[in-house]
Amino acid sequence: MPDTASRPGMLEQDAHRLSAVGDWTLPHYARLREAVAKVHEVESIDLQRLGELDTSGAALLVDLLGPDSVREIAQWAPNLPAERQALLKAVADANRNPLFAPPVPRGNPLAALAGLGQVAELLARQQLRLVAFIGLTLSTLLKTLFTPWRWRITSLSAHVQQTGLNAIPIVALLTFLVGAVVAFLGATVLRDFGATIYTVNLVTYSFLREFGILLAAILLAGRTASAFTAQIGSMKANEELDALRAQGLDPMEMLVLPRVLAMMISLPILALIGMLSGMLGGAVVCAMALDITSTQFLTILQRDIPLEHFLVGIGKAPLFAFVIAVIGCLEGFKAGASAQSVGEHTTSSVVQSIFMVILLDALAALFFMEMGW
Amino acid sequence: MNQTGEAIVEIRSLVNRFGDHVVHEGLDLDIRRGEILGVVGGSGTGKSVLLRSIVGLKQPDGGSIRVFGKDLQRLPSAQRTQIERRFGVLFQRGALFSSLNLQENVALPLFEHAGLSRSDAERLARVKLALAGLPPEAARLNPAELSGGMVKRAALARALALDPEVLFLDEPTAGLDPIGAAAFDRLIMTLRDALGFSVFLVTHDLDTLYSSCDRVAVIADKRVLVADSLATVEATDDPWIRDYFHGPRGRAASLAARHHSSPQGERR
């Protein structure tokens, strides 16, 4: 261990002659640097009693003496071992250019305002790009629609398995739990009016129209949009997208279409599963806490709930699926070459797709209400 | 100038395997103080695996690796870190931290290990970047903005950050143009002469072998066939070595080296 036997490096001054004493090494850098800063530039220094020397110590000596006089070290310190001289010269040569890059100009008070403008512009551009990407996806879809030999069935089914089949357990469990919670809430409020029987209507209405599809969509936004971004982003970082293009293959057709279509197939099915499982959760609570038997639950469901609620709910699924998949893929394409960039865009794709799902759902709710559906 | 001879890394009957696939079996090799040791071998002979075993990124499946006289595997982790700080590693693709700019990349080990203040560490980092031959403007660039040659230089600056005693280079000139590769070879030699470290150099570049290596170790058949001066290695009677050094590329590199070593060639 060299550090244990280390004599701290020092700068000693006696009778107009400076001498460097002890080890001028990394562990003593901070203290030596202070000492060096106190001394004005000198022409030469006594190095007879110098102990260890490494690059950091050499850098300090160069700071002290200036690169020019260090380069002529052979003249004023001929006794210094050759490798020490070589080290000092190498560091001096490295210091030939000023080490500090020209400072970056500081922002003025208006910079914050400019920053705000930039963010707004970026946001607008992002939306524009999303619209453009949607258009590109649709036109590619139309092109391939009439050329069935270019349909990528294998890729499509693999993505259906990943986004749809593998998500069934989590969607079912989550909606079951939320269904139970909604039933409990309904029971608590409705009990005061002696109308606990309407809990059935509450659970079925909310799950058929909203919760089934909304919960499934949010789950897929978190689970699959992020996966799409990470997959495509890391392919981009690895230049795989360029390789595809260079071979005359269209990444839109090879990568985006199978993912978008798989999502549009999976989400309606998952939404249906979400609805059923949510109502099951409600039915279980009704049976256990409210003495509404499952026969009763089913009778009310059959008699009082018109089909249109189900259609309103499931009708939104393809739209949500399309938006989630497109955002996921687009963010992947936008990612840069670094791991950090892929991470940032993955986050962004999840946030954007959840935001869009909720926004679209709110707009749809307004629309359906006005239409009286 | 340096007292070559003393072995600072001693590898004895090293065994490495991945599942059933045996990479090394009974491999012996020394790295001596102050030398540049070139390690060559066909693709898949485990040159990089050997490097990773020495620096402690892969646990060997048998044998011993003694570094500065100590067996790394048997040391408690604190002492191990102490020893590992005396290594500098340049990975094949640079492995610069993509979220930090160059000066932060080099400064990171300085303020993490040496306990320097941030400004001191970044100042020293700029010295190292300049030593590695990068212009001052490069200090604030991000790794994604660099060309291949600059990545290698920046990675070298980071490997040199703590003044290592052994520098491990994994194919440092792969992917560089011949001029950049020759400049990199010269840079390694200059720094080795100035800083006195040893170099463990995994390479496919015959020009590098001829221009800068003191000794060459050939890995084949899961062990080191021969580790000696280039002349001795060239003369070794082994089919692979013959093909390697006396093939068209080997001959050309050997010729170029002989041609230029006589007038003490600065330029190649």
Kindly describe this structure:
The complex is a heterodimer of chains A (373) and B (268). By secondary structure, chain A is mainly alpha-helical. Chain A has two domains: 10-94, no CATH class; 143-371, no CATH class. Chain A has 15 helices and three strands. Chain A has a three-stranded mixed sheet. In chain A, strand 2 (17-24), helix 1 (29-38) and strand 3 form a beta-alpha-beta unit. In chain A, helix 6 packs across helix 14, helix 8 runs antiparallel to helix 9 and helix 9 (199-237) packs parallel to helix 14 (317-334). The longest helix of chain A has 39 residues, at 199-237. The radius of gyration of chain A is 35 Å and the shape is elongated. The model of chain A has no long low-confidence stretch (mean pLDDT 87). Chain B is an alpha/beta fold. Chain B has one domain (7-227): P-loop containing nucleotide triphosphate hydrolases (Rossmann fold). In chain B, 40% of the residues lie in helices and 24% in strands. Chain B contains ten helices and ten strands. Chain B has helices spanning 47-55, 77-84, 102-113, 118-131, 148-159, 178-195, 206-212, 230-235, 239-246, 248-261, and strands at residues 7-18, 21-32, 36-40, 62-67, 70-71, 87-90, 166-170, 198-202, 215-220, 223-228. In chain B, strands 6-7-8-3-9-10 form a six-stranded mixed sheet. Chain B has a four-stranded antiparallel sheet with strand order 2-1-4-5, with helices on one face. In chain B, helix 3 crosses helix 4, helix 3 (102-113) runs parallel beside helix 5 and helix 6 packs parallel to helix 7. The longest helix of chain B is centred in the last third of the chain and has 18 residues, at 178-195. Chain B is globular. The interface between A and B is medium-sized, with 33 and 35 residues.
